[in-house]
Amino acid sequence: MLDFQEYDGKTLGSKDYEDLLIGNKGILPYIYEPQIELISEWIPYSKVELKEVLEETQESFYDFREDKQEREWVVFKLLVSDSQKQVQFSKMVDSIVFIKSEERLILVTQNRLHELLERLRETYDSSQTFNTFVVSFIYLTLDDMFEDLKEVKKRISEIERSIQESGAVKPIFNEILQLKKYLIMLSSTYRNNERLIENFGKYSEHFFGDSKLKQNANDKLSDRMTTLKDMVDSYNQYLSSLDTMINNLSSYQLNEIMKVLTSISIILTIPTMVYGFWGINVPLPFEKLAYGFILVFLISLVISFFVWGWLKKRRLM
To answer: Which residues make beta-bridge pairs with 79?
Structure first.
């Protein structure tokens, strides 16, 4: 029978950590903002090792050791993606550290994760064993990542609509950049979690006592992880092709603008040449007529209109 409880690590003393780590059985504690030096007193890991495991959010971790009393300890870390609204890349990933002995399981995070608490309450079942709880928790966490990918798909669809309605404008480039950054983070997270799941298979005798549970757990988690990786790869490829299409569209729009401006410059050059010719200080036609300037103006207009028609016919503007 599991009894889920939440603890603020800053308020716990050495005796409290002893009770949670090697004392009471059947309790599922979640400790946030832990005092690492107090944890290291009771498990075969140094303060430096635990600090690195907790603070590093770019790599997963899996290790097992025996303490002096020949108790087996398994410490592993699951990486979870944070909200897509995060701007800083370093804050996009959180890590959850699982510390497991023969009949105990403790969850530790560097900061208090509200989404984790909700997930724990959803996953928690007092009739579960620690092993089945861990498998269920990881699987549901992967489901959350799956939902994140669905949101990515929605945002890609919104970008497509924006391109159709407004063309390749600056906000679209920023949106694609953010999505690419988020997918890079997801891809890295999935690769690391995949290694964690592989370690479940390699060292399962230290985690799963039941071979059937081991096989079911490995198959279930591996299948879900493969699906997530394939989705991330396909979205990355699609975003790359979309980015190329947008660049081509931008080049095309720029070429069209330059073509129009060049055509206008050519047409405006005609009156300038005509007026320059009639400005020469030598005898010229219409110079003695009272309305000669109107005739000059009409001549420049006719020639300009003719050039414009010729450019239009040749599809040069």
So the answer is: 95
Q: What are phi and psi of 16, to 5 degrees?
A: -65, -45
Task: Give the number of other CB atoms < 10 A from CB of residue 261.
Answer: 11
CB 175 within 8 A of CB 159: yes
Instruction: Give CA–CA dist 245/251, Å, rounded.
Output: 10
Q: How far apart are CA 189 and CA 34, in angstroms?
A: 23
pTM: 0.67
Mean per-residue pLDDT, 210-233:
73
Q: How far apart are CA 257 and CA 313, in angstroms?
A: 18
Torsion, Cα of 41, 42, 45, 51 (10° steps):
-60
**Lowest model confidence (mean pLDDT) among 157-171, 172-186, 203-217:** 203-217
Distance CA 30, CA 42 (A): 17
Q: Which residues contact 187 (CB under 8 A, 6 or more apart)?
A: 229, 232, 233, 236
Distance between CA atoms of residues 40 and 135, nearest Å = 26
Q: What is the largest CA-CA distance in the chain?
A: 120
